[in-house]
Design goal:
Low-confidence stretches: none
CATH architecture of the largest domain: 3-Layer(aba) Sandwich
Radius of gyration: 23 Å
CATH class of the largest domain: Alpha Beta
Keywords: Oxidoreductase
Structural class: alpha/beta
Number of domains: 2
CATH superfamily of the largest domain: Aldehyde Dehydrogenase, Chain A, domain 1
Strand content: 15-25%
InterPro entries: Ald_DH/histidinol_DH, Ald_DH_C, Ald_DH_CS_CYS, Ald_DH_CS_GLU, Ald_DH_N, Aldehyde_DH_dom, LUC3-like
EC number: 1.2.1.3
Number of helices: 15
Catalytic activity: an aldehyde + NAD(+) + H2O = a carboxylate + NADH + 2 H(+)
Family: Belongs to the aldehyde dehydrogenase family.
Strand order of the largest sheet: 14-15-16-13-12-18-19
Length: about 475
């Protein structure tokens, strides 16, 4: 097999590299410069990929679990040899600072490693009359539709459990960040049989074709609530299984006993990590009134130290917004907050134009409950704070949203903080940490933040059907 080139990109169909008459160039969001050409997959490319995945499925399903684990282990070894190449690609396509690109790339190996050693659940129940065996069988051809904020780790978060459980998988990377996903799958061809893991890059139309294809058994989608609803509607025509991990509007509740100097910078990082482009970033901060002024002051002090800039400019904490569409959306939150006269505790009410899509991290001090910045998800580095006095009232305020992806509670008294966490209506609540999803636990949302969940032992079942055999003794 010829060595992988990290400056030429292909769709991967049935283990073959495919170009296209139609090409696309993603823009480096830190500089505005165009990146490499990538092919846009055609409907024929997609149909060929589904046919190859369908053909490969019976053999892959019947491959012993230990052998599938072994191949995932070889994939880890191969990926490990190219980590620096993936860091370079990720910086170019997302603009995220090099040390944070390294964190995302560094998460791939443990993510696959953790999933590859999981046991697929089964259960046996016996009584005098019968024995009931519950096992789980793979679904078939799965489609993974990947967002642009964490293109590598969210690809592998679908690939690892799907392949371990015996499914074949087709990945569609975001057109905003196609490079790492295509290379991840190209690399896999050196390990897995043809058709087991493929990649087709393209636009929304290609995603729609994937969701309506009659031979695709499941769609795993990470992205916006609006698009997730379209995916679910399209998938309903063939009763596809769907896992939808959608937007959030996470609340952080700060209890009055916190160590202010220690916790305030952590809360800021929860809001502004990856320039706020995280589905489970902290998006509303509720601080007890007795410490509100001091806590906000510490948040402001830390925020003023945050460096924003190009991935290669030394010790930056934040990079740019990833694409112009999202940049304009985030600017709308600044414009609305300025027009309504809200207080900017830190940050600029006017976003200055530059070559890249850069925005300085911004805190809005105590906007009203019905404000855009409280009720909607900016997906950028702008966050509101509000004081609270009554714990029941602030929990109700935190839960007063159509979303429920994550949330945080901060307090010295861990048992008291856990009691608050139990009352928050969201899929993942973090006590004394900002939001840090992990492969060890299922990840999914409540309300309109999604359907189902993936990762961890429980998440494996999202790629499987229950298969129950009832054996009567006479």
């Amino acid at each position: 097999m010829s060595p992988i080139q990290f400056d030429k990109f292909y769709n991967i169909v049935n283990a073959e590299q495919r170009g296209s008459k139609e090409i696309h160039r993603n823009v480096n969001p830190a500089t505005g410069a165009e990146n490499w050409e990538v092919p846009i997959a055609s409907e024929q490319d997609l149909n060929d990929a589904v046919a190859a995945a369908k053909k490969a499925f019976p053999s892959w399903r019947d491959t012993p679990l230990e052998k599938r684990r072994e191949l995932l282990g070889k994939y880890i070894e191969l990926f490990s040899q190219h980590q620096e190449d993936f860091i370079n690609l990720l910086c170019k396509e997302t603009g995220k600072p090099r040390k944070f690109a390294a964190v995302e790339v560094g998460g791939v190996v443990p993510f696959i490693g953790y999933h590859s050693q999981l046991k697929i659940p089964d259960e046996t129940v016996e009584d005098e009359e019968k024995t009931i065996y519950t096992e789980y069988t793979p679904l078939g051809v799965c489609g993974g539709i990947i967002p642009w904020n964490f293109p590598l780790i969210l690809s592998i978060g679908k690939i690892a459990p799907a392949l371990l459980t015996g499914n074949t998988m087709i990945i569609k990377p975001s057109p905003f960040t196609p490079y790492t996903g295509l290379k991840l799958v190209e690399l896999a061809q050196q390990v897995f049989p043809p058709g087991v893991l493929q990649a087709v890059g393209g636009n929304n139309e290609l995603g729609a074709l994937l969701t309506t294809h009659p031979d695709v058994a499941k769609i795993s989608f990470t992205g916006s609530i609006a698009t997730g609803k379209k995916v679910m509607e399209a998938s309903a025509k063939t009763l596809k299984r769907v896992t939808l991990e959608l937007g959030g509007n996470d609340a952080s509740i700060i209890l009055p006993d916190v160590d202010i100097k220690k916790v305030a910078p952590e809360v800021v990082m929860g809001a502004f990590q990856n320039s706020g482009q995280v589905c489970v970033a902290t998006k509303r901060i509720y601080i007890h009134e007795s410490i509100y002024k001091e806590f906000l002051e510490e948040m402001v002090n830390f925020t003023k130290t945050i460096k924003v800039g190009n991935p290669d400019d030394g010790d930056n904490l934040l990079g740019p917004i990833q694409n112009s569409m999202q940049y304009e959306k985030v600017k709308g939150f600044f414009a609305d907050s300025k027009a309504k006269g809200y207080k900017f505790a830190v940050g600029e009410p006017d976003v200055a134009a530059s070559k890249g899509f850069f925005i300085q991290p911004t805190i809005i001090d105590n906007p009203p409950n019905d404000s855009m910045i409280i009720t909607e998800e900016p997906f950028g580095p702008i966050v509101p704070t509000q004081p609270w006095s009554d714990i029941d009232e602030v929990i109700a305020r935190a839960n007063n949203t159509n979303t429920g992806l994550g949330g945080c509670v901060w307090g010295k008294d861990v048992e008291a903080a856990k009691k608050v966490a139990k009352r928050m209506e969201a899929g993942s609540i973090f006590v004394n940490s900002y939001e840090k999803p992990t492969p060890q636990a299922i990840f999914g949302g409540h309300k309109e933040s999604g359907i189902g969940g993936e990762w961890g032992t429980t998440g494996l079942l999202a790629f499987m059907n229950a298969h129950v055999i009832h054996v009567y003794k006479s």
